[in-house]
Amino acid sequence: MLSEALKSLKTGYAAFLDYDDLIFPRAYKWLIDRLRQTRKAISFGRVYVTRYETKRQVFIDRAKVYEYGYSYDEFVRDNHAPIHSFIIDLDRVDVSNVTYFDDHKYMEDYYLMLQLLTRENADWQSLKVNKYIGDYIHATDRAHTLALMCDTERNSRLKDEDYRRCAERIEALRKDLLSRTA
User: What would the DSSP string read from start to end of 68-81?
Assistant: First the structure.
């Protein structure tokens, strides 16, 4: 779905926002300013991991969980950029060769970004700024795809056949990318 959405756009900026994530005011302005300043294709901000109780509509707490990862190699080895923590300048990337699978329901954003990011086209310096642009919501009282608070649920999900298939595709792509740069 993400890949098809990107392919339907011809120019401008693209960003993704899940229904339960939040972006702060002026976040996109900051990201676009970074793109213009650096002339890169992709720029990053940081997002808090925020626990939220949906029934009472209460924010419980925030943590700086994703304050690691500053380079291409680190991104390839470990997904440190949640889906709403980056913006893409479509005039500077080629999305026509992006591949996806209809049954890839876990970590689709990471699989997509592994295909778009390079050492040269991303504003890796933006990660060193540690500018917080939003919240990655982890609801304490409802289910998520992967942002699971309960260890039992997380372990069960990691054993799921669909999850394992997606993880295997990602691992194969990682190996391919790292072998090209070795």
Answer: ---SHHHHHHS--S
Whole-prediction pTM value?
Answer: 0.85
The rounded distance, in Å, linking the Cα atoms of 165 and 177 is 19
Q: Hey, which of 52-56, 66-70, 171-175 has the most confident mean pLDDT?
A: 171-175
The helix (run of H) or strand (run of E) holding residue 49 is strand 46-53
Question: Are 26 and 118 in contact, with CB atoms under 8 Å apart?
Answer: no
The structural domains of the chain, with segments of one domain joined by +, span: 2-181
Q: Are 72 and 122 in contact (CB under 8 A)?
A: yes
The predicted-structure confidence for 37-51, as pLDDT tens digits, reads as follows 999 999 999 999 999
Q: Partners of 167 in the beta sheet?
A: none
The β-bridge relationship of strands 46-53 and 58-63 is: antiparallel
Beta carbons of 104 and 162 less than 8 angstroms apart: no
- What is the C-alpha separation between 112 and 2, in angstroms, rounded? 8
Alpha-helical runs (H) found in the chain:
2-8, 27-38, 72-77, 108-116, 125-129, 151-159, 161-181
